[in-house]
Amino acid sequence: MTALFAYRRLASQALAAIVLLLAAIASTPARAIDTITVALDQATITKMPDSVSTLVIGNPVIADVTVRPGGLLVITGKAYGVTNLIVLDGSGAVLSERYIEVTGPRDEMVTVYRGANRESYSCNPECQPRIMLGDAPQFFGQTAAQTGERTSQALGQAAIGAVTGR
User: Fold this and answer.
1) Which of 44, 131, 152, 153 to pair with 99, CA 20 to 30 A apart?
2) Residues 3-27: pLDDT tens digits?
3) pTM to 2 decimals?
4) Residue by residue, what is the 3-state secondary structure of 61-130?
5) Which CATH code for domain 34-103?
């Protein structure tokens, strides 16, 4: 009698394990979704079919994606994190689903903490202030203003060069 009871108990445990295994298989996606990794404040390019019509980005605060002629996608990292990208054709059919992971910068960076305030610098070979999410508001604002001034100067020099032919 005890052998029969043990056999039934073993059979019910095996059946439960099979049911759990089938449930796990059913909940597994049919295909793995690729991940595109891009550094913060950097861009990367990826190729899609020419028929790309619509881009859907799960969280546009994390990444920006634009489509160029020929199905070329330009992906720019805007904030740390992971979001998803769905690419559709003109009829609404899904051409691709991908994750976009935005990681930290890849250059030599130094972070300075002044109490609770953070400042970030790019050091290659000399250290210069850089705009980084999470920096102290005053430092961030000053760095953004300096960057804007340098951009204006560069654009002015480019315009002068275009006029003078230099």
Assistant:
1) 131
2) 666 667 766 776 666 656 556 555 5
3) 0.56
4) CCEEEEEECCCEEEEEECCCEEEEEEEEECCCCEEEEEEEEEECCCCCEEEEEECCEEEEEEECCCEEEC
5) 2.60.40.1080
